[in-house]
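[Solved] Which block belongs to which protein?

Original post:
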Amino acid sequence: MHMPNAVKSAALGFAVLALAAGPALAVTVQNPTDKPLEVTADLGASEPKVTVDAGKSAKLDCPEGCEVRAVGLNSYGVSAKTGDKLTVKDGALAFAEGASTEKGKTKTQ
């Protein structure tokens, strides 16, 4: 089956756009520690989890904003929105750019 070039170009453009939009709906969590870190995103009805290996980063889906919590850290969760980058600083989750976690924090168990 032969597809016209315009259809091929449109399909390729859509695929690139879909791939570019995916990560934009996520929060990136960096783990600079020497131990794996389990992180959850409170989306209301669900709380997906991801394990961030030591020295690595991972993305959590957070399409409309969420509370990000690290299991095992005696710290507060962080109210994050899509595109935010979080890291572990002084044993707690914090914005990677150095922003304060004071706004909208809740205690993680």
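(Second protein starts here: sequence line, then its structure tokens.)
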Amino acid sequence: MIDSDEHDKHHTGEREKTPTGTYVSDLAHFLDSSGKLSGRAPMEVREMAGFLVLILDKVTIHFPDTSSGIGTGVRCRSRNCNGEIMGALDSIDSPVMWYCPECGNYGTISNWRGSQWDNTGIGGNP
């Protein structure tokens, strides 16, 4: 049975933003022993890794002005979503947080400090 709120949303075209994915990612799981993206991983894993490092690159270059979130210019990777990923970094020791305001997907990226995508200039990479 459909409740009246759900019925109204269906008939007005209004949709609830229900996340289709929550991603808790450890960057180290995507890297080889030299700290580069592993070329031996399956295609889907390499695509996800590429998505994550694009977000890291954009968010860390703007640190410390990222605690309230910034547009990354990175397109959401969810099917049928053209949203732009927003990213945030509260503190240098925190995971990078990201979300898509269009579809509701969100996630975190940990163990990014000192990687080649760490653009903070604080320890790690300059």
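Accepted answer:
You had them paired correctly. Confirming on the second one: The first strand starts at residue 22 and ends at 26.
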